[in-house]
């Protein structure tokens, strides 16, 4: 099992992680000034549903290469995530504008929204 975990960790993932309020603000500014589609996953380390959903989010990032994937832990970015009321929350951006939002788990729902965004 360790070999499989090691291979998984070494595989390139199409995802950026916001590690602070400033990094999230910078990432969101980049998304808003870009024409490329993006999805932001707002979660928390203590959130069981977030932990269950994250591996699927990571895998989907490899399936939808044209979409920028971002993960932001609300505890690491407390000031810039005050508007987030539920975890996980997924926000979808196209042409710099937020076009959709999804709350809670659901790999199939997430996949469908990403497909529509791509």
What does this structure look like?
This protein is of the alpha/beta class and 118 residues long. It has 4 helices and 5 strands. The longest helix is centred in the middle third of the chain and has 16 residues.
Mean pLDDT: 91
Percent range for β-strand residues: 15-25%
Element-level helix/strand string: HEHEHEEEH
The low-confidence parts are 1-7
Radius of gyration, in Å, reads 14 Å
- Structural class, by secondary structure, is alpha/beta
The count of β-strands is 5
Helix content: 40-55%
Q: Describe the biggest sheet?
A: 5 strands, mixed
State the strand order across the main sheet.
1-3-2-4-5
Number of helices: 4
In short:
This protein is 41% helix and 25% strand.
List keywords for this structure.
single chain; alpha/beta; 41% helix; disordered N terminus
């Amino acid at each position: 099992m360790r070999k499989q975990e090691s291979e998984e960790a070494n595989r390139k993932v199409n995802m950026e992680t916001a590690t602070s309020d400033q990094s999230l603000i910078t990432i969101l500014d980049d998304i808003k000034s870009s024409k490329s589609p993006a999805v932001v996953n707002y979660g928390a380390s203590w959130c069981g549903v977030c932990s269950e959903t994250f591996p699927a989010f990571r895998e989907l990032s490899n399936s939808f290469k044209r979409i920028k994937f971002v993960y932001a832990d609300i505890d690491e970015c407390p000031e810039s995530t005050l508007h987030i009321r539920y975890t996980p929350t997924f926000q979808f951006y196209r042409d710099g504008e937020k076009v959709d939002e999804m709350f809670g788990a659901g790999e199939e729902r997430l996949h469908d929204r990403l497909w529509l965004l791509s």
